[in-house]
Amino acid sequence: MRWIVGLGNPGKEYETTRHNAGFFVVDELARRWGAGPYQNKCKALAAEARVGGEKVALLKPMTYMNLSGESVRAFMDYYKASLEDAIIVYDDLDTEVGRIRLRYQGSAGGHNGIKSIIQHTGTQTFNRVRMGISRPKPGAAVVDYVLAPFAKAEWPEVKRMVDEAADAIEFALSHTFEQTMAKFNGRSGESGSHGT
Question: Of these residues, 19, 111, 175, 194, which one is catalytic?
Fold first, then answer.
């Protein structure tokens, strides 16, 4: 079974924050695929859809960001799911708003959700879609920045980025992640080339 995990924080107050970019993508995929209603499972809100005849699970951990690995581990143990079949979607300070970056291994890069997943799975090798949120201005506290909503002017870029991340994940279901990286890395943010 393929499974998509979007990282974020539960609760109304976090809904539109930068840290919840992963949730945005999972919700967009649920909309596109007509996924069944979310249910509480494996310390997450989980839904299932059939995509091209294959069952795909959508997961939004409800553990708060820094414990995301608990939910991922619980899902793996309960469903005997392989991390190789997962795609983790999360916000990335080192990528500008509106751009996505795909990779399949590497350190947490200071991201507490990824740090927790590495800790609970014992590996740094898993497919990732990083959603650009840019860095705060010098002197601003990172924690306040990631837990603040996107600025109104950023939303058109955010919407486009979410659509592109969802496109990349749909492509990845029928192609290798290497092919997906080749197609989508570096493509976003190029004026006029979106959707080609």
Answer: 19
